[in-house]
């Protein structure tokens, strides 16, 4: 396993990590989740990602039960939660001091841990001043309930503002963002955030490296039963797949699959290794509903050396979507 610093922090996370979105509860029960977590841990994974909204808290409960039964030393792994969508009532949503406080304590109880290594603001909250959220995160860090806080799908301007507010208040600023990043979704990580890696030392814990499964090739002939796009709760993913853009991505995935075979690997490994080639990626979050899927994607690190300059250029030709560089002044 390769380990990378989470942005400018001293925390080193495994280059690939394991997340529970969609899979835990919907596709994997506690026994399956525990088996996959153990497999990931044995392979060197030290970061396990979760959120309050995943399966309305059941995902965290499953992970917490597995962590308790596995009995790993607490100093050998990192676990996260995210705050924003906690419930339907006004006090159960957003990034107010109250909900940030309540969500943290609820996550600790579900995950059965004394502190969260990483705590993410799952989306920006335009109804709450950033100063209030930054203070709330600073308080949780001062209390030892959170070690590092960050964001998910915030804009570069919002992150810059949060970092500036934190400096002014003398509290820790955001360490990381969790953006979507894959061969089809590139702009935020490669272009929008480009200045933040230097100015605030931003780390990234990227999600959906396989573009919700499109970059596995499984959707080449429709939506197979048991896949995430077949789940009623994720009908929006299927709608996206069946759009003109989605069909174009399936076509590109088929071309990439041919290139992967030529290189001597599989499409999922190629797609994850491509993400890992970006030096601003701290960790790639893997998702799996079966052990076989996890075993395959864990092997992506071994594929990275195969992505020579020539192979990367051939990938760019197929994708034809490289973001334009931001002007530098």
Account of the protein in words:
- This protein is of the alpha/beta class and 329 residues long.
- Helix content is 41%, strand content 12%.
- It is built from 12 helices and 10 strands.
- It has helices spanning 30-42, 58-70, 97-111, 130-142, 156-169, 187-192, 196-199, 235-241, 244-263, 267-276, 291-298, 309-319, and strands at residues 3-5, 12-14, 16-19, 47-49, 78-83, 116-121, 146-151, 176-177, 203-206, 283-286.
Q: Can you describe this structure in just a few lines?
A:
With 329 residues, this protein is α/β, with parallel strands linked by helices. Helix content is 41%, strand content 12%.
Unreliable sequence segments: none
What's the Cα radius of gyration? 19 Å
Side by side, the strands of the main sheet go: 3-4-5-6-7-8-9-10
Q: In total, how many beta strands?
A: 10
The dominant shape is globular
Q: Helical region count? A: 12
**What share of residues is helical?**
40-55%
The largest β sheet comes out as: 8 strands, parallel, barrel
Based on secondary structure, the structural category is alpha/beta
Order of helices and strands: EEEHEHEHEHEHEHHEHHHEHH
Q: Could you tell me the mean pLDDT?
A: 93
* Span between termini: 38 Å
β-sheet strand percentage: 5-15%
């Amino acid at each position: 396993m390769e380990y990378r610093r989470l942005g400018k922090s001293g925390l080193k996370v495994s280059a690939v990590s394991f997340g529970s979105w969609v899979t835990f509860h919907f596709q994997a029960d506690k026994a399956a989740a525990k088996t996959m977590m153990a497999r990931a841990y044995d392979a060197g994974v030290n970061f396990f990602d979760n959120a309050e909204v995943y399966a309305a808290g059941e995902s965290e409960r499953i992970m917490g039960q597995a962590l308790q039964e596995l009995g790993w030393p607490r100093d050998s792994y990192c676990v996260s939660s995210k705050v924003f969508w906690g419930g339907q009532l006004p006090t159960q949503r957003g990034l107010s001091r109250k909900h940030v406080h309540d969500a943290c304590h609820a996550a600790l109880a579900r995950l059965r841990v004394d502190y969260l290594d990483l705590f993410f603001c799952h989306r920006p909250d335009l109804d709450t001043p950033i100063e209030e959220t930054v203070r709330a995160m600073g308080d949780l860090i001062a209390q030892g309930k959170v070690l590092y806080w960050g964001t998910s799908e915030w804009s570069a301007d919002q992150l810059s503002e949060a970092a500036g507010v934190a400096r002014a208040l003398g509290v820790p600023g955001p360490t990381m963002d969790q953006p979507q990043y894959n061969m089809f979704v590139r702009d935020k990580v490669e272009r929008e955030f480009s200045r933040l890696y230097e100015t605030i030392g931003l780390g990234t814990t990227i999600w959906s490296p396989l573009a919700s499964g499109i970059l596995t090739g499984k959707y080449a002939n429709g939506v197979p039963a048991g896949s995430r796009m077949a789940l009623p709760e994720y009908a929006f993913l299927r709608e996206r797949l069946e759009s003109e853009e989605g069909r174009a991505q399936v076509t590109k995935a088929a071309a990439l699959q041919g290139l992967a075979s030529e290189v001597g690997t599989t499409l999922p490994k190629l797609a994850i290794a491509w993400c890992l080639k970006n030096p601003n990626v701290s960790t790639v979050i893997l998702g799996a509903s079966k052990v076989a899927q996890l075993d395959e994607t864990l092997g992506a690190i071994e594929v990275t050396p195969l992505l020579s300059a020539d192979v990367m250029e051939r990938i760019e030709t197929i994708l034809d979507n490289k973001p334009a560089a931001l002007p530098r002044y």
